[in-house]
Amino acid sequence: MEMINEDHNIRITGKRRLSLALFINYFVHGMVLIILMQNMLSLAHSWLTSIAVVSYVISGIGIGRLIAYPITGILSDRLNRKTFVLIGMILYIIFLSTMPFASNIVFAYTSAIIAGIGNSALDSGTYTTLVEINNGSGRSTVFLKAFISAGDFLLPLVIVFLSTHHMWFGLSFMLPALILVLNLINISSIKFPKVREIQQEETDSEVQISPIKKAIATMGLLVYGYTSMALMLVFTQWITLFGSKVLGLGLITSHFLLSLYSIGSITGVFMISLILKTKRCEEILVVILNLATVISLLIIMLAHNQLIVELGSFLFGLSAAGGVMQTGLTIFMKLFPKHHGTVTGAFYFFGSIASLTVPIITGFLSTKGIDVAFSFSLIISLVSSSFVILVMMIMKSTKE
Prior knowledge:
Elements: H1 2-38, H2 40-47, H3 51-78, H4 81-98, H5 105-132, H6 139-164, H7 171-188, H8 195-203, H9 211-246, H10 251-278, H11 282-302, H12 306-320, H13 324-335, H14 340-366, H15 370-397
């Protein structure tokens, strides 16, 4: 009996150490997501070019994702999760350690593409591992969002500190690179679960569904991969201008709307995690949160009271950016228990399409007016809600 308890404690300790290592990677990932945008002026000065060219280089990350997601997803199912986590970390280290020294745009754009591929490899190995070590629960994947937000929050403070003390901007790249190097040493000695053993356990309880319904649900979840990412992109890109130009709010208040979105996002992470800890109800939870997103956008667009608009921004962050996208991926994995990596790659491939197309679409719409560009988020939200309701109905029918 003592031997059994000891083995159980070892497994629990290994699981916690693995989870923490993966969370640390996504703390750095949160920094990587914004590091080029936050250093645009410094990079433009270093390359003797314009901010517009730096913006063009940033698009390389999206290109890297689009190229890699279909490949890394499939291969992570056939090889092993740890390999792709390590590949993702190494590629991020290469990106972070070379970008400040980039001497020309071609080199910089190549480095950005490497970051996009690293992002893809990291997602394919991480989301699948967290779901698999938690018996199919997506609760831990929701926590990734909290660590991403923490990285988003810390990096601008680091950059301000470096600027204030007249220190080299490249140190903002070296810090996350150092964290990854240390975590790479740590994670190299951690044992990952074997994919085939996990897949066999989940296949035994595989969702029984007709091919037609499965195809419809798959289409709905792929669309959701696009819409869930698109919603966050439209909001973060346009809420400040919408607040100041359309709602007539002050500049500080308009920026505060984005801060409230971030606070709502972190609140949503803990709320969703708590709910999923007590009950496995991913399908109904995603529907409720999507409908709450529609309501929050209507509040922001129709209300003429500052406090109510601020409440709407908080609610949007909680419902649309608190981990609901990751919860949608967990539902997708239930449909294909033997292909977690492939599903993750496909889901985030559609999210990457949103990253490329949404700025173009909203940029065109903004020529008609800032309110028109922001209203695109309501259309996306309605489409998103329609598809997740359809998926929930299909998944519910398999349990009856």
